[in-house]
Amino acid sequence: MTSFTKRGLLVSSIALAFAPTVFAQSDYPSKPITFVVPFAAGSATDQLARALGQSITEKTKQPVVVENKGGASGMIAAQAVAKAPADGYTVLITTNTTHAANEHLYKKLSYDPVKDFAPLSGLGKGGQVLVVPAGAPYKSVGELVAFAKANPGKLSFGSGSSSSRVAGEMLKQLAGVDILHVPYKSNPLAITDLLGGQINLMITDVSTGVPQIKAGKLRALGYSTQKRSAQLPDVPTIAEAGVKGYDMGYWFAAYAPTNTPAPVVAKLNQLLNSAVASSAAKSFFDMSGSEPWTTTPQELSQFQAAETQKWGKVIKAAGITPE
To answer: CA nearest 33: which of 85, 82, 83?
Structure first.
């Protein structure tokens, strides 16, 4: 057998060995995809996952199954996806909680938010609203800050999520005020106590705060990101209202297990970007007060790194001890 023939057989053998993998990637998706959500059914992340899944199913003719794995601040779901086969059929639809905040809030994670995942795309961004009871004596962020400075330690803020907690801590740091933090299991529970007068203020997600604002039970003083909310166009941003440099929002993003093949990552990025622009997703964004946001995998990786540093700085400065 000539060396040429041997070389030809070797190339053919390699091609055959890799053929099933190449075919599987080019044929992706050829079976149902599972979207794992770190929070309960009905949560904002869950609603977005279902809207995106509907669009992807319409486009690929493959079912998208949404699996809710709530608990442990998203760690249960993140760990499950990190350990799933890297074939593109298990996707984590998550938020800044699992991929920016947790590593600063817990001494030990059951997953590595960078090494265990392949970034796919950003999905959406949203802000929060600073609210006080309608009968509160302060009618602006400036008046609230002045009151807090004149009465250190007498005001309290509630939070039922990492986003709400860190937003409140950032307000304290940038405004230079002493306000007591009161933790809750969810933002709606904190809102109940805010309405009842047990706490004085909170920075909450729009979907939780707006109904009470429109009902005249809460007063909106400021919005947490650099851009005003479309649902609350007359409410200034907290930065506009005098707390310079204030900018704290939340975000949704999608990740696959690390080592997911590049062609599959590219296909998922394409499908997710298209789904974010769908009518089902638009309904979600309009309802939740958030807005669509898509990225390349590399852009998401860079954004996540910057956000992790930002959240860590606020959490450390707040003196929050990791659990």
So the answer is: 85
Please give the single-letter amino acid code of residue 173: Q
Q: What is the pTM of this model?
A: 0.81
| pLDDT range class, residue 12, cuts 50, 70, 90 | very low
**C-alpha span between 218 and 102 (Å, rounded):** 30
Helix axes 279-288, 44-60, angle to 10 degrees: 170
Residue 43, pLDDT score? 82
Listed in sequence order, the DSSP H helices in the chain are: 3-26, 44-60, 75-82, 96, 102-105, 141-150, 162-175, 187-196, 206-214, 262-276, 279-288, 297-317
CB 126 within 8 A of CB 288: yes
Phi and psi angles of residue 215, each rounded to the nearest 5 degrees, phi first = -80, -5
Residues 25-68 pLDDT 10s: 578 999 999 999 998 888 889 999 999 999 999 999 999 999 99
**Judging by beta carbons within 10 Å of its beta carbon (0-12, 13-18, 19+), is residue 301 exposed, middle or buried?**
middle
Cα-flanking dihedrals φ and ψ of residue 178, to 5°? -110, 105
